[in-house]
Automatic annotation (TrEMBL):
Species name: Streptomyces sulfonofaciens
Name the record gives this protein: Phytanoyl-CoA dioxygenase
GO molecular function terms listed in the Swiss-Prot or TrEMBL record: 2-oxoglutarate-dependent dioxygenase activity
Keywords for the protein's UniProt record, in alphabetical order: Dioxygenase, Oxidoreductase
Domain of life where this protein originates: Bacteria
Amino acid sequence: MLTDYQATRFIEDGFVKVEQAFAEETAAECRAILWRATGRDPDDPATWTEPVIRIDAHTEEPFRAAANSPRLAAAFDRLVGPGRWAPRDGLGTFPIRFPSAVPPGDDGWHLDASFQGDADPGDYFGYRVNVASRGRALLMLFLFSETGESDAPTRIRVGSHLDAARLLAPHGDSGLTMMEISTRAAAVTGHRPVALATGRPGDVYLCHPFLVHAAQSHRGTRPRFLAQPPLYPAEPYDVDHGTSPVEQAIRRGLGR
């Protein structure tokens, strides 16, 4: 279980790190599957020709085990509420980042979208986010490889979820597109301190859906393996009366 202190930090900072949320052996099994999916040779850096390769969702047993570990289930109950989140049948997507001098091209500050709205299925930047985080209970970062400061750890603007809540509030149920909220949130959260999502294989960062974050170039020596799936809600958030840390954080951002 997360401690009361961790839940409080989640409300204030927008994220909590669950160390060894799943076994390192499970991470190694997943990593082997992902290496095969890349078509690259783990022992031959000459084959690592792109700065990033994106792999779609995987549902093999080790991915299901990672997604549904007892430690994570307890953390979901603490942050979202028992019975208020949906178990996952796998994980994805996987942005696999390779050491490269070439800019990755996807390292802008942003929020992840939550629901499609009227966007075309292939237009993810047109998907939307609203103040009740319709369609997304949490953003999650699953580490499948050792990730130090040089290994392209995800950058996090600490406390930026509070600013994003204020930006979304005037737009009601329809919210803003991913591009709209990301552009506005990036502009107003530059004063926030930056944390890096570093850690060991098996560590998981559980993030508020409104947390502003960004990729970065890989300056290390070994590829970084990460999954960034959403946790889906089993019921909508209640911004006005809900008691979960996610809902409390939204109200904190709105000054309630």
